[in-house]
C-alpha cells in the first residue's frame, strides 16, 4: 500500500512537473502548446550530451538544457505562433501539433532514433528509507522541484510587475494593450519560462525513466496535459495536484484492479471529475465574453 | 473576420506542408547518404562476395539439398538480367532503427550479389514508410510506378499487413525480413517471412525453458497494445500450459504506460517467479531490468528477438543485462565465416555492429536470388529483365513452397518455407555475459 503510494507519487511528480509548463502557457497565452512534450525531449538530449560528450557536471548540464530550451521556446513562439496571434485557436492548435512533429523529426535527424540511456545524475545522493521502503533520490528531488517551481510561479504571477502583466494579458489582450502592456513581449516571456520549465522536467523525466528517444516527450506530454486538465488547466497548484493524483490513480489502478485497465481507469476518473467540475479540480470558472 | 480565420487555417496548412516537405527532404537526404555508402561498399564488397560464394559452395558440399545455393554458372540454365528489387520500411520516425538496419543489411547483400556476376544484377530501391500503414501503401505505389518486380519488405508488422493485401491483389511477391505477426502471411500466398513468426517464438521459448529445466514458476510481462508482444505471449501461454509450466504472474503495460514497471515486478516477485519472460522490445525491457535491480529482485530474465539491441543502447549499463537469456536467430559474435564477413562488411560500411534486423535484411535478397537461381537451373535458364511482377510472383511462390528449396544465411542455415509463408529454422539461445552475447 505504502509502496504503491510512493510509486504513484514518484510517477505523478514527473507528470506534475511537465503539467506545470503546460498550464503556465495555457493560463497566459490561452493556447495548448502540444510541442511542450518535445521541448522536454530536447532538454533531455541537451543534458545527455552535456554530460556524456562534454563531461560537464550535472548542474551545468541542467543549466545548459534550460538555456537551450528557453531559446528554443522563444524561437518557436516567434516563428510559429506569433504570426497566428489573431487567428482562430484551431489554427494555432494545428500549428502546435506541426511544431511537435517538426521537433521530433529534427531530433531524429540530429540524434537518430537509437535509444540513449540517460545517466543517473543523482547517484551520489542518498535515498530516503521508510521502514523497508526505499524512496529514490530522484523522486524526492522531483517533488521538491515541483513545490519550489509552484511557489515561485505563483509568487511571480501575483507579485511581480511582469507577472501582473501576464495575468492582464491572459484576462484580455486588447485591454492589456490599452494599459501599455507589451502583449508580444509578455507572451514571449511566458514561452521562455514554460520552455525553461520543460528543460528541468526533461532532465527529471529522463533521470526517473532513463531512456531517451526522439519520441520520449510525446506520451508523458499528453499524460501531463491530462493532468493539467484534471487539476484545472491554467491553475498552477492545480497542475501539481492533478499530476500527482494522476500518477497515484494510475499505479493504484494497476496494482488493485488490472494492469490492462490502468489507463481506462485514469481517464474514467478524469471524465467523472470533469462532469462534476467542468473546470477541473482547482480551475477557475470564467465567463466567456462574447 | 471569416476571411481572417480562413487565411489562418491556410497558413497552418501551409506550415504543415512545409514540414511535410522537410520530412521528404530527410528521406531524400538519407537516400543520398546511402548512395554515397554504396560507392564505398562497391569497393570493399568484392572480397566479401567471393567469400559468400565460397561459403555457398561449402554448404552445398555439406550435402544439404541446397541446390539453390550453387553458383549461377553451374550446369543447367543460368540466371540473367536485371531484377528490380524494392524495399519498404521505416527509414525515419520512431521505428527507424529497424528500417535502417534492414536497409543496410539488404544493401550489403545486393552489392555482394551484383559483384558475383555481371549477368545478373539487382537494382535496389528502398522506400520510407515511417512505420505507418498508409504511408507504406504510398511507398508501395511508388515502387510500382518504378516497375518493381519483387519486394523484400516491409520491415514492420502493421504496414506489412496493409501492403501485403495490396501486393496480393496485384500479384507481387513479398518476402518480409522482420514482420513477424501471423496476420502478415494469413490468407496471402504471395507473402513469405524470413524471420520467425510470433507464435513460433512464443512456443519455442516455452519449450526451451522446460527442456532446460530453467524454472518451474514463471512470470510474464507483455505489452498488450502491441500485436507482436501479445502474439508471442498467447502462444507462450498455450505452450506453457501444455507443458505444465506454471505461469504465476501475468501483467501488462501499453505503449503509453511503458515507464513504470514497479507493480508488474512486485507481482512477479510476490508470486515467487524464478524466471520473468519478456516478449517485448528492448527499450521497455531496459527499464524493467533497471527497476528490478532497484527493488532487489533477481530472477532470470528471458527475452525474444525484440530484446536484441539492448546492448547497443548508448549509455546502457550492461551489468543490468548480465545473465539475460534471449532466443534470437542471429548473433554478431558467431564465429562462422558467413557471419564474420557480414559483421565486418557492415562495420566497415555503417560503423556499427549489425543487429538482428540487419541480419534478417541481409538474408532476404539472398533467399530471393537463390530461389531464382533454383528455378533457372530447373527450367533451363531465366532472364528476369522486364519480366512482369505477376510472372515472377508465381515462379517465386512455386520455389519457396518447394520442400527441396532451402537457403542459408546469417540467421540460420537450411531455411525452408511452409505453404502459408512461415519460415522454419532453428532458434539459437544466447545469454548475455560481461556485456556480450554468448551462445548457449
Could you please describe the fold and organization of this structure?
With 290 residues, chain A is mostly helical. Chain A has a single domain, classed as Orthogonal Bundle (ABC transporter involved in vitamin B12 uptake, BtuC), CATH 1.10.3470. Chain A contains 11 helices and 4 strands, in the order ααααβββααααβααα. Chain A has helices at 2-29, 36-52, 58-81, 89-111, 137-159, 161-171, 173-178, 183-208, 218-231, 236-257, 262-276; strands at 116-117, 128-130, 133-135, 211-212. In chain A, a hairpin with a 2-residue loop joins β2 and β3 (133-135). The longest helix of chain A is centred in the N-terminal third of the chain and has 28 residues, at 2-29. Chain A is globular and about 60 Å long. Chain B has helices at 2-61, 96-116, 133-146, 157-170, 182-185, 198-211, 227-243, 262-270, 282-294, 337-350, 356-378, 389-400, and strands at 79-89, 120-128, 150-151, 173-176, 191-193, 217-223, 246-253, 275-278, 300-303, 325-328, 382-383, 407-409, 412-417, 423-424, 428-433, 436-439. Chain B is α/β, with parallel strands linked by helices. In chain B, α9 links the parallel β8 and β9. In chain B, strands 7-6-8-9-10-15-16 form a 7-stranded mixed β-sheet. The longest helix of chain B is centred in the N-terminal third of the chain and has 60 residues, at 2-61. Chain B folds into 2 domains: 35-196 and 337-426, Rossmann fold, CATH 3.40.50.2300; 199-328, Response regulator (Rossmann fold, 3-Layer(aba) Sandwich). Chains A and B meet through α1, α4, β1, α9 and α10 of A and α1, β7, α8 and α9 of B.
Amino acid at each position: 500500500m505504502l509502496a504503491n503510494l510512493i510509486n504513484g507519487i514518484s510517477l505523478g511528480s514527473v507528470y506534475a512537473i511537465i503539467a506545470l509548463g503546460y498550464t503556465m502557457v495555457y493560463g497566459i497565452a490561452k493556447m495548448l502548446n502540444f510541442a511542450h512534450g518535445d521541448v522536454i525531449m530536447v532538454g533531455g538530449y541537451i543534458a545527455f550530451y552535456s554530460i556524456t560528450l562534454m563531461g560537464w557536471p550535472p548542474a551545468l548540464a541542467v543549466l545548459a538544457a534550460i538555456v537551450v530550451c528557453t531559446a528554443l521556446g522563444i524561437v518557436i513562439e516567434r516563428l510559429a505562433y506569433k504570426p497566428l496571434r489573431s487567428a482562430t485557436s484551431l489554427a494555432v492548435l494545428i500549428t502546435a501539433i506541426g511544431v511537435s512533429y517538426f521537433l521530433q523529426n529534427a531530433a531524429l535527424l540530429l540524434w537518430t532514433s537509437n535509444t540513449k540511456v540517460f545517466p543517473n545524475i543523482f547517484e551520489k545522493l542518498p535515498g530516503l528509507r521508510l521502514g523497508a521502503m526505499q524512496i529514490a533520490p530522484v523522486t524526492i528531488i522531483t517533488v521538491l522541484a515541483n513545490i519550489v517551481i509552484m511557489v515561485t510561479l505563483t509568487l511571480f504571477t501575483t507579485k511581480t510587475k511582469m507577472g501582473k502583466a501576464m495575468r492582464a494579458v491572459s484576462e484580455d489582450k486588447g485591454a492589456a494593450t490599452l494599459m501599455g502592456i507589451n502583449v508580444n513581449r509578455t507572451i514571449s516571456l511566458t514561452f521562455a519560462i514554460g520552455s525553461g520549465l520543460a528543460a528541468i522536467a526533461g532532465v527529471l523525466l529522463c533521470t526517473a525513466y532513463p531512456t531517451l528517444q526522439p519520441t520520449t516527450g510525446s506520451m508523458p506530454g499528453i499524460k501531463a496535459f491530462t493532468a493539467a486538465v484534471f487539476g484545472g488547466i491554467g491553475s498552477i497548484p492545480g497542475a501539481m495536484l492533478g499530476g500527482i493524483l494522476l500518477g497515484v490513480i494510475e499505479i493504484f489502478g494497476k496494482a488493485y484492479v488490472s494492469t490492462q485497465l490502468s489507463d481506462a481507469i485514469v481517464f474514467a476518473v478524469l471524465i467523472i471529475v470533469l462532469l462534476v467540475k467542468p473546470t477541473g479540480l482547482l480551475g477557475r470558472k470564467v465567463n466567456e465574453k462574447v | 473576420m471569416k476571411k481572417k480565420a480562413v487565411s489562418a487555417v491556410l497558413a497552418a496548412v501551409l506550415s504543415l506542408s512545409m514540414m511535410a516537405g522537410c520530412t521528404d527532404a530527410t528521406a531524400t537526404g538519407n537516400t543520398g547518404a546511402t548512395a554515397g555508402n554504396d560507392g564505398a561498399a562497391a569497393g570493399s564488397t568484392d572480397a566479401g562476395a567471393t567469400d559468400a560464394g565460397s561459403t555457398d559452395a561449402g554448404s552445398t558440399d555439406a550435402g544439404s539439398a541446397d541446390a539453390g545455393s550453387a553458383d549461377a554458372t553451374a550446369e543447367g540454365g543460368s540466371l540473367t538480367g536485371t531484377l528490380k528489387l524494392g524495399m519498404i520500411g521505416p527509414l525515419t520516425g520512431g521505428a527507424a532503427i529497424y528500417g535502417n538496419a534492414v536497409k543496410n543489411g539488404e544493401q550489403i547483400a545486393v552489392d555482394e550479389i551484383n559483384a558475383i556476376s555481371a549477368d545478373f544484377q539487382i537494382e535496389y530501391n528502398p522506400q520510407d514508410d515511417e512505420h505507418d500503414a498508409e504511408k507504406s501503401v504510398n511507398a508501395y505505389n511508388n515502387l510500382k510506378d518504378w516497375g518493381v518486380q519483387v519486394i523484400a519488405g516491409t520491415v514492420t508488422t502493421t504496414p506489412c499487413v496493409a501492403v501485403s493485401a495490396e501486393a496480393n491483389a496485384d500479384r507481387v511477391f513479398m518476402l518480409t525480413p522482420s514482420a513477424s505477426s501471423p496476420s502478415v502471411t494469413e490468407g496471402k500466398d504471395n507473402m513469405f517471412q524470413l524471420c520467425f513468426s510470433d507464435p513460433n517464438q512464443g512456443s519455442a521459448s516455452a519449450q526451451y525453458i522446460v527442456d532446460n529445466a530453467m524454472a518451474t514458476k514463471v512470470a510474464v510481462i507483455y505489452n498488450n497494445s502491441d500485436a507482436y508482444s501479445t502474439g508471442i505471449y498467447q502462444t507462450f501461454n498455450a505452450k506453457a500450459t501444455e507443458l505444465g509450466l506454471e505461469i504465476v504472474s501475468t501483467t501488462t503495460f501499453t505503449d503509453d504506460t511503458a515507464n513504470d514497471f514497479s507493480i508488474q515486478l512486485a507481482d512477479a516477485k510476490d508470486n515467487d517467479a524464478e524466471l520473468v519472460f519478456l516478449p517485448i522490445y528492448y527499450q521497455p525491457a531496459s527499464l524493467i531490468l533497471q527497476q528490478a535491480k532497484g527493488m532487489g529482485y533477481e530472477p532470470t530474465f528471458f527475452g525474444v528477438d525484440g530484446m536484441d539491441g539492448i546492448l547497443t543502447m548508448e549509455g546502457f549499463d550492461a551489468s543490468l543485462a548480465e545473465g539475460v537469456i534471449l532466443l534470437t536467430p542471429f548473433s554478431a559474435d558467431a564465429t562462422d565465416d558467413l557471419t564474420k564477413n557480414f559483421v565486418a562488411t557492415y562495420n566497415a560500411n555503417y560503423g556499427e555492429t549489425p543487429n538482428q534486423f540487419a541480419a534478417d535484411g541481409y538474408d532476404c535478397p539472398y533467399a530471393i536470388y537463390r530461389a531464382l537461381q533454383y528455378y533457372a537451373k530447373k527450367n533451363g535458364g531465366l532472364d528476369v529483365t522486364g519480366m512482369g511482377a505477376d510472372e515472377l510472383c508465381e515462379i517465386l511462390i512455386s520455389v519457396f513452397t518447394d520442400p527441396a528449396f532451402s537457403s542459408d544465411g546469417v540467421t540460420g542455415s537450411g531455411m525452408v518455407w511452409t505453404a502459408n509463408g512461415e519460415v522454419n529454422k532453428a532458434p539459437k539461445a544466447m545469454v548475455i555475459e560481461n556485456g556480450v552475447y554468448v551462445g548457449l
